[in-house]
Amino acid sequence: MGVYEPGTEAEAGEIVRAAAGRGERLRLAGGGTAAGLGRPAQDSATLSAKALTGVTLYEPAEMVVAARAGTPLAEVEDLLASQGQMLPFEPMDLRGLYGTTGEPTFGAVAAINNAGPRRINAGAARDSLIGVRFVNGRGEAIKSGGRVMKNVTGLDLVKLMAGAHGTLGLLTEVTFKVLPSCERVATLIFPGLDDARGIAALSEALGSPFELTGAAHLPTGIGAPQARTLMRLEGFSDSIDYRTGELRRLLKRYGSAEILDGEAGAALWRSVRDAAPLAEPREAALWRISTAPTHGPALAAAIAAERDARWFFDWGGGLIWLATGSEGDAGAATVRRAVQAQGGHATLVRAPDAVRAAVPVFQPLAEPLMRLTAGIKAAHDPAGLLNPGRMYAGL
């Protein structure tokens, strides 16, 4: 299988046009760290953004950064940190889940709409994405958006490309709004709460005026012998002292909370961000389930009533990371039933290729939505060259 690594957007367009002439289907790739995400590729060659590198715009005063899609994410984050800034949405590192090497790329953040625990406060990657350049399935270079947030009429290509998993085009450059870094980060940890009480505590804290930027619950045995309910606060030190004190008083019926600062706290949230407590055993299937936060404990319990499972909660209970056996359908029927009963959607993040080819990886779409999805795919990639079947069979 051939590998194409264009050094410019124009070269990428030429490669796609030539592939169209040959009927050659293309797997789109960046650093290769998330290669196991989605359905197994149905392609005959790889089109990589790896050589499309370099920061193309950084204006700290305007809080905006743009870089070519193959630029290592770490390079952009280091540049931002040197100016006391950061990406708002805390993208996760998938290498631990998939056992991959290489470097996560800036374009992939947009392509998979990658966001971590701070999503409850700052939104997803798409909420900070303000500009894209990409090559569509006709080999045309398309630019959408720019340096500022603005209202959009018609089809918003910027938001459409976020989370499209490369099925509509090869991203060549992305532009994000950024935020100032925080002076201090502190985490309140309430020990020993069961799932229902842990989520209740998080819901109460999130409904308060004290502004959490992380809200997770790790049940007993997930990373520690005792359950932990985590609440992260960021900002100026005096503000954090006041807010942690108020939260302790507000939540005193949930027990006494300790405060974790510094690198120990940062490492704990990196672990939550990267779903590290469920990374092993690597052969286990891993589900990412979104639901209403108060439904999370019942949803997880319904799955556990039918099959062995381990899980933890992020986003105040609205995101469930759940590991289960990969045999059979990797729990797809059980998970989908539980999601249908409680509301939400589920993605099979990790499973053997044979399982991901046989069961829907992403939440199945209702027929009207599938028709709309197929129409958008046809408009941008009429020959179905780019990441065919990556999200839905036949598309």
Give an overview in words.
- With 395 residues, the protein is an alpha+beta fold.
- It has 3 domains: 48-180, Uridine Diphospho-n-acetylenolpyruvylglucosamine Reductase, domain 3; 184-273, ACT domain (Alpha-Beta Plaits, 2-Layer Sandwich); 276-358, Alpha-Beta Plaits, CATH 3.30.70.
- It is 32% helix and 24% strand.
- The strands form 5 sheets. It has a 5-stranded antiparallel beta sheet with strand order 4-5-9-7-8. Strands 12-13-11-14 form a 4-stranded antiparallel beta sheet, sandwiched between helices.
Keywords:
Uridine Diphospho-n-acetylenolpyruvylglucosamine Reductase, domain 3, 14 helices, alpha+beta, five-stranded antiparallel beta sheet, Alpha-Beta Plaits, 3 domains, 32% helix, globular, four-stranded antiparallel beta sheet
Number of domains: 3
CATH topology of the largest domain: Uridine Diphospho-n-acetylenolpyruvylglucosamine Reductase, domain 3
Low-confidence stretches: none
Overall pLDDT level: 95
Radius of gyration: 21 Å
Strand order of the largest sheet: 4-5-9-7-8
3D shape: globular
The biggest sheet, with number of strands, parallel, antiparallel or mixed sense and barrel status, is: 5 strands, antiparallel
Per DSSP, what share of the residues sits in E-state strands of 2 or more residues? 15-25%
Number of separate helices: 14
Look at the helices and sheets and give the structural class: alpha+beta
Keywords: FAD, Flavoprotein
Protein name: 2-hydroxy-acid oxidase
GO molecular function: catalytic activity; FAD binding
InterPro entries: FAD-bd_PCMH (IPR016166), FAD-bd_PCMH-like_sf (IPR036318), FAD-bd_PCMH_sub2 (IPR016169), FAD-linked_Oxase-like_C (IPR016164), Oxid_FAD_bind_N (IPR006094)
